[in-house]
Every structure is written in C-alpha cells, then in structure tokens.
Amino acid sequence: MDRQLQNARKKAICCAVLTWLLVPAVYAAGEAPAVTKDVWVKANTAQEEAKNNSQSITVITAADIAKKQAKSVEDIIFDEVGVVRTVDAMGRVGVSIRGAEPRHTLILVDGEPVMGDFAKFYGAADELQRLGTENVARIEIIRGAATAEYGADAIGGVVNIVTKKPMKYAGISYHAEGRRRAGNDELFSDNSMYLRADSGKVGKVSLAIYGNKRDVPPIYAASGLKHSASADFFDYHGMDGVKNSLRYYGKTMDSGILLNYDVNAHNKMNVEIKKYSENMDKYSKHSDSPLEPVQHFKRSVE
Length: 302
Description:
- Strand 4 (105-109) and strand 5 (112-113) form a beta hairpin.
- The protein folds into two domains: 43-164, TonB-dependent receptor, plug domain (Ferric Hydroxamate Uptake Protein, Chain A, domain 1, Beta Complex); 166-302, no CATH class.
- Mean pLDDT is 76; it is low at 224-240.
- The chain is of the alpha+beta class.
- It starts with a helix and ends with a strand.
- The strands form four sheets. It has a six-stranded antiparallel beta sheet, with no helix packed on it. A five-stranded mixed beta sheet has the order 1-6-7-4-5.
- The chain has seven helices and 15 strands.
C-alpha cells in the first residue's frame, strides 16, 4: 500500500513539474516574437587587456583626462597611487614608482623611449611636462618591475603615453585659459592656448594640424622670500628679493602635422612632423646672506 502511495506521489510531482515547464511555451505560442533595438557595447582594448595582466596597471583614458582638467601629462600621473615626483639639485623633475629611483622609470611616447632613452639622465618628468593633454588618447602606468617586457630601464615601472592620431571626421578643437593674480609678489602668469584642425578621412588620407602654447608655472620652496644684493636680479624682476624656485618655469610651444595613409585593408602609414621649443628659467637662493649670489639657470630647447 505504501509503495502504491509513493508511486502516486511521484506521478503527481512529475505532472506538476511538466505542467509548469510547458506553461511558458503554450503562452508564447500565441504571442508575436519580441523585437528589440540594436545594442552597441563599446570596450577599451587597453583597459580589458590590463584586467588579465599580473602586474598593477592603470589606464587613464581621454575621458578621465578631461575630468581632471590638467594641462600636461605630468599633472595627471602624479595624482596616481604609487607615483611620486622627485626634484634634484638642478631643478630637474623625475618620476619614482613605488619608491624606485627615477632613472628606473621608463617613459614611453607611443611605445618609444623619449629623447632616445636619454631622458632618464636629464629629468624624465620634464618630458611629461612638455606633452599637453589635449593630444593624449590615453596614459598607461605599470607599477613594479617590467624588465621582462621593457628591458632593464623598467625596474621601477613604465609610463606609456599614447597620443591621438588623425580623426576619421573633420573638426576643429580650440581651448584657451588664463589666470592673473594681483599683487607685487607674483612673478609669473599662467596661460595656455590650443588649436587643432582635422580634415577627416578623404579617400585613403586623413590629416591633422595642431598648435599648443603653455606657460609652465614655478614651484616655490616653502622658505618664503629671500633678500639679495644682486643687481641683475633686481633689474630682471623689479623687486627686492627672490622666491626660491624648485624647478624650471617659463613658456613652451608645441606644434605638429599628423598624416595617416591607408595603404590597403591590412597596412597603414603614419607620418608625424613635430616641433617643440621652450624658454625656461630657474632662480635659487638658499640663505638670507647678501654674500650669496642668486643662481640663475636657463634652459632653451628646440
């Protein structure tokens, strides 16, 4: 009797489950198929590849750069965790990642070492200062040793700046800003201007022309105003003292022509002609003694 009751219960359960599974099919048989609009999913290749990498990698996109409102690449990377600015006695700025020496940080622009890999001896971050953010597509930061892939110069880490290529569509970009502060103790103004024009893709060719002019502000020491007996300094600044600047400051100009030619479906040729010039100064005085002269360093690069 118990066996018959168990069989009856099993049959009832099976019928209930079968009915529950068939209800959606019976209901859908009388309905029209559902149609939705196309769904487009956009993914960033660099960010997706970074997820599968064993090292700590940060990818800063153009959208992230726009939110920060930074003028140079240098202003971006030093906001990241583990990336520290260093300044040597000559006012040259370096990049230290996770406490490693600045010369062990490899700086790349479009995958190539800047200044033929000699920048590590002259202050690598000065190269980042020369790159305006308007022409940057993304910034990749690798924290930790990456010597297996990038060589011995990447013991501390890697900073790779990927610049923008000619756009597929025609357009003009313009940006200008300035700052002026009242007071006799202000030695420097801060202005920037950027203009870029893209032809868009015309046949197999796309062209872009850009120009950038920026004022790089100084970074002063916290020791305040130092008095000096140097007549040259008085004539240059028109005041009775000098602010001890920790680094070079002045005006920079950057311009270039970018050409992209699609040879065929699998090959393309990129041509870049760029010109950069700067006129920078650095004044240093470390004591109140009138016997100590003001040290004036000047850097002109083209």
